[in-house]
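Interim report, section 4.2 (structural modelling).
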Amino acid sequence: MAKVDVPDIVISRLPRYLQTLNQMAKEGMHTVSSSDLAARLRTTAAQIRKDLSYFGGFGKQGTGYPIYLLIEELQKILNLDRIWQVALVGAGNLGRALAQYPGFPRRGIEIALLFDADPNVVGTQIGTIPVQHVDFMESEIQDQGIKIGILAVPAAAAQQIADRMVSAGIEGILNYAPVTLILPESIHAMDIDPVLQLQTMMYFIGED
Amino acid sequence: MAKVDVPDIVISRLPRYLQTLNQMAKEGMHTVSSSDLAARLRTTAAQIRKDLSYFGGFGKQGTGYPIYLLIEELQKILNLDRIWQVALVGAGNLGRALAQYPGFPRRGIEIALLFDADPNVVGTQIGTIPVQHVDFMESEIQDQGIKIGILAVPAAAAQQIADRMVSAGIEGILNYAPVTLILPESIHAMDIDPVLQLQTMMYFIGED
DNA sequence: TAGATTGTTAATCGATTAACAATC
DNA sequence: TAGATTGTTAATCGATTAACAATC
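Predicted structure of the assembly:
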């Protein structure tokens, strides 16, 4: 697939469209216009039509978009039409919460591997997932051909674990540690740091 | 403070600058040039200088920016020069992890209130924080004048709890539930949904 | 058919980048 | 002083919005 011409920012909006379309489907809707979808997503009808038009014409003049079709198409575009296995490193409070997060299996994401360095935790199970020692991380990731890793380790360990993930063949890293990782350009890294988001809010909410 | 003229996207980058400057300070650095900071953050020197210039001239030609000064200034700009109390709703796996997340107190965020609806959980303590019944949410938030709420409840409950937060005077909501909330324009809402981030990655990593 | 809404092109808007005089 | 780097202006780039012919 030559997907070079679609702006990254467009791609990053597609999962939100999908999320809302799924909600609408659950509500029993069958068809939606770009303006109704836009209202729900707090964006504009023009943007939705433009974004979707990068991938084809999924709508019908006069009636809008068939919700089920659009859900299927978006899933295909985003490569969601299969189960993705991910490796999770860190079985502390956050790692354990992620390992048991029902939103993952529900949306096709399987925590296939879980690692920690603490000997008190290694060997136990979190939900149905055994915690392995992080020393086995590289070999396990390679054996299973896993491409996505989730980092839920302390800040001090994050860079080192990320480097090891990359050397094991990981192509995407979701980083929960509050540090800016230094990674090769080729790696798709995204950060989830609630403090950064809260700090942005604090600017706007001000000092009242 | 008239902060109307600074683009939102600039504000959203400031916490990252601050994070990296703090790391640099910890490494013993005293001064940094826009290009060195840019290299660390994977952005450009011009962007950093432009962003900072909205708030004043903090650097020195020839030598760069004094790290400690810049940290202080950024903290003032973002209103981080005080403790922010937040209300957390949801004491499931995720809520409990958040309630005990050391990155919050370390960066001036205090979980002052914690609520849940489950009678088995209400009355217990998570770390040092007592879990109160969500029925008391509005009054407690109002009593303490809390402006920021964190939503860690199941998707089905999220909209209703968010509405109640708003009616209690909350001005910013950090939403962990995988739903698009419908909220008044005046509310600063941000979503943290790891699945949306992973799905964006899946597009780029592809089907190999 | 008349009304609604798409897909797309062109216009606008805003953000990023480049360049450089000022100056430490 | 010479070298480095800022702060800022102007140029470029890219994304969003508006508009409308096509068409269901």
